Amino acid sequence: MTSLYSESNLRPVPVIHHTALCVRDVGASLCFWRDGLGFQQLMDETFEGDWPTLLRGPGRTLRSVFLGDPAQPTAGIIELVDLGDVGDPAPTEQATTGFLLVSLTAPLDATLARLAELGLGGEPRRVEVHGVAMAVVLDPDGVQVELIDSGATADLERLTGA
Predict the structure, then answer these.
(1) Given a cut of 50, is residue 1 above it in pLDDT?
(2) Which of 8, 16, 50, 53 lies 20 to 30 Å from 127, alpha-carbon distance?
């Protein structure tokens, strides 16, 4: 059986540079993503542009804060975007199509403890699948953030074929 990730199946694919999250309160989001999860701030800029056309934003100004790991620039970046006065998403208790979550590897218990100390993330929903412990918490805007225990890296690699 040929693995999906085998050398013969590799072909150039797009590289994900960043995931952008539209936030209501940059300060609250920074507290969660930077202080709670440990991302480092890479950039904080305000940009003028045609955001109503490109992003369906309400105005021509946006603030962009990039968070990541400067020692691992290809590890992915979370962008916090403040577009101004945007509406709240319709709340739902069930998964819907479209964006589901942001998934991160982290030392699970230590990260959950840090979030709890800061009063962030809500009540974690925890499970274990094939020896991999994980939990889902919520950022200040209700974005689901899956935390996969970095201590289970070998089990995770087995599941993904990496």
Answers:
(1) no
(2) 16
Phi first, then psi: give them for residue 26, nearest 5 degrees: -60, -40
Domain with CATH 3.10.180.10 in the chain: 15-85, 97-162
Query: Per mean pLDDT, which of 11-20, 66-75, 137-146 is the most reliable?
Result: 137-146
Query: Is the CATH number 3.10.180.10 carried by domain 15-85?
Result: yes
Which of 4 and 62 is assigned the larger pLDDT?
A: 62
- Asked whether 68 and 78 are in contact (CB, 8 A), the reply is yes
CB 69 within 8 A of CB 40: yes
User: Kind of pairing, strands 40-48 and 61-68?
Assistant: antiparallel
CATH 3.10.180.10: does it fit domain 97-162? yes
Closest C-alpha among 162, 157, 155, 154 to residue 10? 162
The backbone torsions φ and ψ at residue 117, rounded to the nearest 5 degrees and listed phi first, read -60, -35
**Closest to 138 (Cα-Cα) out of 113, 109, 102:** 102
* Contact yes or no for 49/59 (Cβ under 8 A): no
User: pTM of the predicted model, to two decimals?
Assistant: 0.83
Lowest mean pLDDT among 34-38, 39-43, 72-76: 72-76
Nearest residue to 116 via CA among 36, 15, 12, 27: 36
